[in-house]
Amino acid sequence: MKKIFLNTLLVLSILVGAACKKDPGAVPVTPPPVVPPVGPGAKIDYLKLALETHTFTTNNLLTAGYGYRANTTTHANNCYEWYNVSQIYADAAMVGIGQSKHLAYMNNTFRFMENMWDKKDLRGGYFASVNLDGSNAGGDKYVDDNALSGMVYLEAYEVTTGTDKQAYLAKAKACADWLISSGLWDNVYGGGFYWNTQKPEKPTQTNGLALQLFVKLYSLTGESIYRDWANQVNDWLHAKMYDAVSGLYIWKIDGPGEGKKHTDKFTYDNAIMVEALILYSKTMNDPAYLVQAQNLGKAMNITLWNSVWKGYIFNTNETRINPAWCAWGSQAMIRLYEADKDESWLVYAKENINRLNLANRNPATYGYYFFAGFDGQNRAPEIETVDQAWMQRIQALLSKY
């Protein structure tokens, strides 16, 4: 998932310069207060914002075949796997709060996703990209993208019935079975899944999403293979990727021999792990893992939270904010609230989204820019489908609270 970020980092760094880097000696600018995007003092209507985001997406990014173009600029002729499933995720959240019209969007895009499935390999797996008409599926296969697809389908499974429900479960299992059979887990660095079929590195988010999928499938099916893989991935993440000093998970391991640990801390890596630990606690009936999730959430709110601007940073070396990767922090806080009913988690969830609405949202078009500073300056020009999807999703979830 960091592939878009990594490919554009050089260009964006030229645009934003040193102002986006942490400078411990600098005097912070006094920011404007976080106020509702619909006007000072007004109650925030998160459902309205989610619906407006969906309108922007369908007007600007949806194709005739119910795929979604990657963005409106540099990749307007491509559909990306994790962008499309993120929009399914967003629509599933809408269905979950009673917006039934989103069922058709969700199910039609699910059918479009079949264009990305590798039908020449008996193991299957999703390729990363297709053309707008669904042709020319190709690129590497990504463990994190396939794992996220499985988790998205399991949420769609929860809000559908009949043959659609069974189709979502079957494809979620197919995604997990591809992970197991892909050959992308080995003993290098003591275990762990590689990011993709090129085997460049083993990141936290890749393994965290795989853990989520295995745990969730075990809870639904009772099949021991998913339990065993969940335990294996969980053990590796704790042994290799957890940093006890910060209480957070690091970015990745790569390189020869024992490998190099990259100790950058990303908001969405740790958000993924919060959700994984909550799922593990519930499924394995082990309250100690809920405590771990709570402690991880607290660590996020110490290290990854900008208390001046009231929002999650992208990572500890990059303080610009992105609507997908930073909004993931709000999902973690929502999941913690649902698990323990501590309303302080919701404060973080809401303030983070409020900041993204101020910094990244175009109030005239309702679209969200790829990156921006906390103050809304230095906006990247790209309008990415995945960013719209995550803002739609999180605001739909927040509308319940």
Word description of this protein:
- This protein is mainly α and 401 residues long.
- It has one domain: Glycosyltransferase (Alpha/alpha barrel), CATH 1.50.10.20.
- The longest helix has 20 residues.
- The chain is globular and about 50 Å long.
Strand content: 5-15%
Secondary structure category: mainly alpha
Order of adjacent strands in the largest pleated sheet:
3-6-7
Largest sheet: 3 strands, antiparallel
The termini sit apart by 29 Å
CATH class (first level) name: Mainly Alpha
Uncertain regions: pLDDT < 50 for 5+ in a row?
Answer: 4-40
List the helices and strands and how they pair.
Blueprint: H1 3-16, H2 46-60, E1 78-80, H3 81-96, H4 102-112, E2 129-131, H5 143-158, H6 162-181, E3 202-203, H7 204-221, H8 224-241, E4 242-243, E5 248-249, E6 252-254, E7 260-262, H9 267-284, H10 287-303, E8 305-306, E9 311-312, H11 327-340, H12 344-359, H13 385-398
Antiparallel strand pairs: 1-2, 3-6, 4-5, 6-7, 8-9
Helix pairs in contact: 2-13, 3-4, 3-5, 3-13, 5-6, 5-7, 6-7, 7-8, 7-9, 9-10, 9-11, 10-11, 11-12, 11-13, 12-13
Main attributes of the structure:
globular, three-stranded antiparallel beta sheet, Glycosyltransferase, about 400 residues, about 5% strand, mainly alpha, 13 helices, about 50% helix
